[in-house]
Amino acid sequence: MATILDIQHVSKFFGGLAANSDVSFSMEQGMIMGLIGPNGAGKTTLFNCITGYYPPSKGEVLFKGVKTNGMQPDQVCRLGMVRTWQKVRPLAKLTVLDNVVVGALARTASLKIAREIAHEQLRIVRMDGKAGMIAGGLPIGERKKLEVARALATQPELVLLDEVMGGLNPAESEEIIQLILELKKRGLTQMVIEHDMKAIMRISDRIVVLNSGEKLAEGGPREIADNPEVISAYLGERVE
Amino acid sequence: MPRRPSPSVAPRGSAALGLVAFLAVVAAFAVFPQFVRKPYVLHMGVVLFLAIVQGQAWNVIGGYAGQYSVGHAAYFGIGAYTTTMLLELNKIPPWWGIWAAIAAAVLVSIVIGSITFRLRGPYFVLASISVAEIIRLAALYFKGFTRGAEGFLLSDIPALKIGATEIEFYTKRPFYFTALALAVITVGVNWLVQHSKLGYYFQAIREDQDAAHSLGINLAFYKNVALAISAALTASAGGFYAMFVKFIDPNTVFGLDVSVQFVLICIIGGIGTILGPVIGAMVLVPLSEVLRNPKGLVQLGLLSSDSRFVQFVEEHLSNAHMLVYGILVVIVILFAPDGVVGLIRSGVARLRRRASARERAQAATTT
């Protein structure tokens, strides 16, 4: 398996505060990487550094061998890496379909093709029946799925999902888990920030734990669940 | 022409219906001067069409892309000054000069855009106001180039020869048809924008810039494209205005109230829709005309010359039209934030809901 994302010694300072300090890890094509850690550990900051919202203060991000530091988010997206937002950002006045069409237009100038792509993504997230609804009126579970569909429509090779299960009920979370696993089967590489430990242990091939901006541990789900440092810093008790 | 639900989900018939209605209205306006020859009525037609052009021009950047420029007087004035100066100083007729005006406005818009689009929200609004004010003050100051506050009084526009026919720009008629054509063109440009990738990208930027950015949209580029299209249409409006009114000075074409008028037309009608600026113009133009010149109603034969209304408006309101605009905007923002179009749309939706509820009730009683 080839390396798709290589994060090398990434640090991000806000004034004197190190939101990320010297974080390094890499991802293989097709894997699911879990990114966990307590609130304020720097997970979302790392997403922002990877996807071009912040330039890292130090270090390098290589996506498919291309250095993406200093790139804008739109360039990163067209290169094949897209993120979703923890606090969902629907294009509120547009319909569900048009939200996804906007994503699809990253790869085509034709509205007809973009609509076909958009319908396909809505089928994948099982929202094809809601294509005509106004995005601003959707309940939170549907908004989260719309985030995913819209990101998928840009036809990425790597998706970064920022707490897509946050605020969802168990049935909705299960639906997202199945969706993530299905996307993996289709060959999509994913990095997932999540607080639901049972879910993250189930879906991740590897997990990186951040704490106070630093990488505390990296390993398979079992390894992480058993790691005494991770237990004391974040988990509190062993996850079965 | 509905925006919500968007064209992609609207029933196919409604687009065709909209086109038929549009063509019918244009045809009606086109034959109108055959029946009504009063110069005052044709004059009002020109003012109305010009307001539609202004509204549609602003709609591209403010309505679709959501960037509330309150500095469109800059492009309007550049359009007016370029066409006027080319005609007065170089004897270049306006139908050629207008292209130079459009090119100049687009160039300036790119410069202004690349500076001000770093700012968001209210900061962008303030920057757009100040840029237009800088240009107005520069036009007042550089007297050698612009004649300063003295302005330009236009001599005659040469006759336009198309084949054997000659069009003289003495009467209101040629201006009426030119303005109508401009209005049709700008409506068409808005339609094209709405039904293309550009429209989707503009609206994505309006709804959420960060989300748009993450979906592969180059914010600076697409905002500049929106502004350039808007500036081009605005410059054509400015050029036409100068030819029609035949006098321009920095305050009448670069003034802040000109910029505000662009915004008002869209806000009152409903921003980000094709119908909105048209309706906004239809509300604002008669209103401002009545306030400024209540005798017009007498000329039209709608009121007698000793009417109390005319006296009242002349005495109390004719100098207060900006106040009336202001109150109107407050009312619209409070009670109809999506403008008249939004008001109509929500009314229709309510009627539909009521009708379907009645149907359901009937179905329940029959079974």
Summarize the topology.
The complex is a heterodimer of chains A (240) and B (367).
Chain A: E1 3-14, E2 17-28, E3 32-36, H1 43-51, E4 58-63, E5 66-67, H2 73-79, E6 81-83, H3 96-104, H4 111-124, H5 140-153, E7 158-162, H6 170-185, E8 189-193, H7 197-203, E9 206-211, E10 214-219, H8 221-226, H9 228-235
Parallel strand pairs in A: 3-8, 3-9, 6-7, 7-8
Antiparallel strand pairs in A: 1-2, 1-4, 4-5, 9-10
Helix pairs in contact in A: 3-4, 3-5, 4-5
Chain B: H1 12-35, H2 39-64, H3 73-90, H4 94-116, H5 121-141, H6 143-146, E1 152-153, E2 160-162, E3 165-167, H7 172-194, H8 197-207, H9 209-214, H10 219-245, E4 247-248, H11 250-254, H12 256-269, H13 275-292, H14 295-299, H15 308-317, H16 321-335, H17 339-366
Antiparallel strand pairs in B: 1-4, 2-3
Could you explain the architecture of this structure?
Chain A is of the alpha/beta class and 240 residues long. Chain A has 9 helices and 10 strands. Chain A folds into 2 domains: 1-80 and 158-169 and 183-240, Rossmann fold (3-Layer(aba) Sandwich); 85-155, no CATH class. In chain A, 38% of the residues lie in helices and 26% in strands. Chain A starts with a strand and ends in a 5-residue tail after the last helix. With 367 residues, chain B is mostly helical. Chain B has a domain at 19-270: ABC transporter involved in vitamin B12 uptake, BtuC, CATH 1.10.3470. In chain B, strand 2 and strand 3 (165-167) form a beta hairpin. In chain B, helix 3 (73-90) runs antiparallel to helix 4 and helix 4 (94-116) runs antiparallel to helix 10. The chains are: A alpha/beta (240), B mainly alpha (367). At the A-B interface, helix 2, helix 3 and helix 4 of A face helix 8 and helix 9 of B.
